[in-house]
TrEMBL record:
The chain crosses the membrane at residues 22-47, 82-101, 108-131, 156-181, 202-224, 260-283. It comes from Mesorhizobium alhagi CCNWXJ12-2. InterPro entries: MetI-like, MetI-like_sf. GO terms for biological process: transmembrane transport. Residues 72-279 form the ABC transmembrane type-1 domain. One of its GO terms (cellular component) is plasma membrane. The keyword rRNA-binding does not apply. This is Permease protein of polyamine ABC transporter.
Length: 287
């Protein structure tokens, strides 16, 4: 059995390799979070000689107004819906990539999957503006095919927000599911089929349980940022795109009330961590 002294000697040689990463995490994550946590307890930013003091009123504002809670619940619902749609679209695509396509066809489709990562997020969102607006690409294409005239205008609507967010985050689901599906031995699928299982039974009892770690990883990678998203709701949703994340952005950019924005941000972080902690036993069993 290894002694504590031997364990310390084992960590010692690795410290030079670990130090840059931990220094970067400290500088890029923990220090900004610490500063924002301090701001969340301030009455005002200490700029231009303004007087300030410590207070908990910024956190109390969340509980005193039902608007923030309503927007938070709407954002959680948005995160769940986007995650569900990403799973519905991403899992079959990942299965085709991992088990059906081979060679250059797989490489070409895989390139199309990761292509959104190569473009700016604003470019992707404004591309959807040209597609979803009245007289846009979708409207023009449908009227060119259909024998009757229709008007398609999805801009500034809840479905437009869903479409934009799913397009932005579905690659995460495809990539995580692809890794787990590729690791599944094909002989397990063949054994299930040889024992008389239908394709649906094989999918439900063999493929999905074995691919569950990828589904869970993709769901977490999608749900957490979507709950606090603000670009897609702001541009594609208009007035209907007011969510918790857009309110936080307003506090920092429009109202310049950084203490309230920081408090709302930490409340969102706490809620997401509580959801993940409550779901962790189920997630561990599924993984």
């Amino acid at each position: 059995m290894a002694t504590p002294t031997a364990g310390r000697r084992g960590i010692g040689p690795a410290l030079p390799l670990l130090l840059p990463a931990y220094l970067w995490l400290t500088m890029a994550i923990f220090l900004p979070l610490s500063a924002m946590a301090f701001f969340s307890f301030m009455t005002d930013l200490p700029l231009s000689g303004k007087a300030w003091s410590l207070t908990v009123q910024n956190y109390a504002a969340f509980f005193s107004s039902g608007l923030y809670l309503t927007l938070l619940l709407s954002s959680l619902r948005l995160g769940l819906e986007v995650t569900l749609w990403c799973a519905v679209i991403g899992f079959p695509a990942a299965y085709v990539l991992a088990k059906v396509l081979k060679g250059r066809a797989r490489e070409a489709i895989f390139l199309l999957v990761i292509l959104p990562f190569w473009s700016n997020g604003l470019v992707r969102i404004f591309s959807w503006v040209m597609v979803l607006r009245e007289g846009g690409i979708l409207d023009t294409a449908l009227n060119a095919v259909l024998p009757f005239r229709i008007s398609i205008d999805l801009m500034y609507s809840y479905p437009a927000v869903i479409i934009g967010l799913v397009h932005s985050y579905v690659p995460y689901m495809v990539l995580t599911c692809y890794l787990t599906l590729q690791a599944i031995d094909d002989s397990l699928i063949e054994a299930a089929r040889s024992l008389g299982a239908t394709r649906l039974q094989t999918l439900r009892r063999v493929i999905v349980p074995l691919a569950m770690p990828g589904l869970i990883a993709g769901a977490v990678l999608i749900f957490v940022p979507v709950v606090g998203s603000f670009m897609e709701p702001r541009i594609l949703g208009g007035r209907t795109g007011t969510f918790y994340g857009t309110v936080i952005e307003d506090q920092f950019v429009a109202v310049f009330n950084w203490p309230l924005g920081a408090a709302l941000s930490f409340i969102l972080l706490a809620v997401v961590l509580l959801i993940l902690a409550a779901a962790s036993p189920v997630l561990r069993r599924a993984a």
